[in-house]
Amino acid sequence: MSDLTATTVPGARAGLPWGQWWSQLRAIVRLELRKGFRRSFGLLLLALMPPFIAAMHMIKAVRDTSDIAGATQVFAGLIYQAFTLRIVIFLACVLIFGNLIRRETLDRSLHYYFLSPVRRELLVVAKYVTGLIVSFGLFGTTTVLAFVLTYLPYDSTAVSQFLFHGPGLGHLASYLLVTFLACLGYGAVFLFFGFFFKSPAMPALVVFGWEGIHFLLPPLLKEISVIHYLQSLCPVPVSEGPLAMLSDAPAPWVSIVGLCALAVVLVAVSAWKIRRMEITYEEA
Amino acid sequence: MTTDTTASRVHFENVSKFYGDVLGVNRVNLSIPPGITGLVGPNGSGKTTLMNMMVGLIQPSRGRISVLGITPGQPEELFRKVGYASQYDAFPPGLTGYQFIESYLRVHGFSAREAEAMAWKAIERVGLVEPAKRKVAGYSKGMRQRIRLAQALAHEPAVMVLDEPLNGLDPMARAEAIDLFRELADGGLHVIVSSHILHEVDLISDQVVLINGGYIVAEGDIGDVRDEMEEEHPVQVLVRCDRPSLLASKVFEQDHVVEARILDKGQGLLVRTRDADKFHLVLNDIVMETGIAVEAVAPADADVNAVYQYLIGSNGGKL
Prior knowledge:
The complex is a heterodimer of chains A (284) and B (319).
Chain A lengths: L17 H19 L4 H21 L6 H30 L4 H5 L4 H4 L5 H32 L4 H10 L2 H29 L4 H12 L6 H4 L3 H8 L18 H24 L9
Chain B lengths: L2 H6 L1 E10 L2 E11 L2 E6 L6 H8 L7 E6 L7 H7 E4 L11 H12 L3 H14 L15 H13 L5 E5 L7 H16 L3 E6 L2 H7 L2 E6 L2 E6 L1 H7 L6 E7 L2 H8 L5 E6 L5 E6 L2 H15 L3 E6 L4 H9 L7
Parallel strand pairs in B: 3-7, 3-8, 5-6, 6-7
Antiparallel strand pairs in B: 1-2, 1-4, 8-9, 10-12, 10-13, 11-12
């Protein structure tokens, strides 16, 4: 038909075509990044909020620059756990993962993927990976920035001691791990909801409420929440107030494996769902 | 159905699609060979449903579909051979025309170099080289139609499924698109084109599938379909000649002629016959015998428009 018929058309090979899947996954991630997240002002605003709170604390902390332990508590309790983890990352995951499929259903462009020689399961995985790259890229940076700003006004020798000879860098690494696992867990939850609800707002509100009252729940119910496992990985324990129901924190490996397993199951169900999905934009 | 036939055709076997209680298409049996196939029917007749089922965007409620032996449930194989330009006038946001084509070629699994070469070739074929670096969002309707066409043919498929591909194109672009379809079909491809404009399809199709209310009402070469209707709807033949009255008296002697009407200004005769082949032979004899000067002989109702009109009582033209 043309002189291009000589080009290498990727086809099925013996065994599972891992190489082909890998190149398709990279192509989908590249396309998603190219089209999806460049002008997301809502996300940018969310990402700027923790550093903003840290900056506010920085102004306040100028009066007493020796209380590193106090700064550690402020970052752990107020900036990270209460604000970044429970509000900012949660909302960002609703925005990013809840719209991975829904946005393209609304703008009627999902069929271009469905008309490509790509397994739909791979499409879900690639979109989820894109969401992880964007969310962790954004909120990992935000976490580091807020962490730096929190300690910036303090005495440099004390900060250096805390970071390089104390637990400082270990704390930062733990916060980054928690941020990643939060994106992984909440991301999978909202990707999954994206397939079962027309709008992610209502289920997101329910999950937000559930995660919000987590500290009031009896131990058994606490285990059915993402925040329960994330909190247990945070390096600095934070008081949840007098009304909190006390329970044993899960072991770190249980939290990590549990959140990864949750993500795998929810992404697998989403992949099963997309395999049966029909393009009927009229109903979107 | 042999394996050879299956591997070279698009098959629908007793396919039905219901949207809840609403009928999409019912008991469709089709076997589409290479060449240009026109899928014709009014809006809502089931054309898009058939096309969407062919590529797996929707699944049939009943029946089986295969495209060159591949079912729509095997997208990894199917879309190496099929390109589909849908009617959805929507694009991924933020991409230029070139990026749109190139990105999806990469999703196919082509290398960056191959994707670039194939994207430019497809863009060139639809005449969009100049605006290819502009955002698709700024394109006119005709340009958007052409970039969708380019996307569908960029990976060099063996089957092109095009839903209303001429919509929104200006006459020049329309002619170029038709030439492109012809070129593709002449290269051995299946080009399946839907339209609700009859004369457009008549012009470009090697065979047609007429659909109405979710049912296939006729399929095949339009001439053959018309021939099958001769008994119920005698063929109309227009004869432009100098002595229409004499010709009328002569043709009336034939038992297959059911009507002969002299045209208003006496410039010819409109004959309705149940056997067009026999009529043409008889006409030769009459001309030899009487010396009537015949200027032109042409079928008056052998086009898809007339066939559709007879089959479903439509007014033809734009359905």
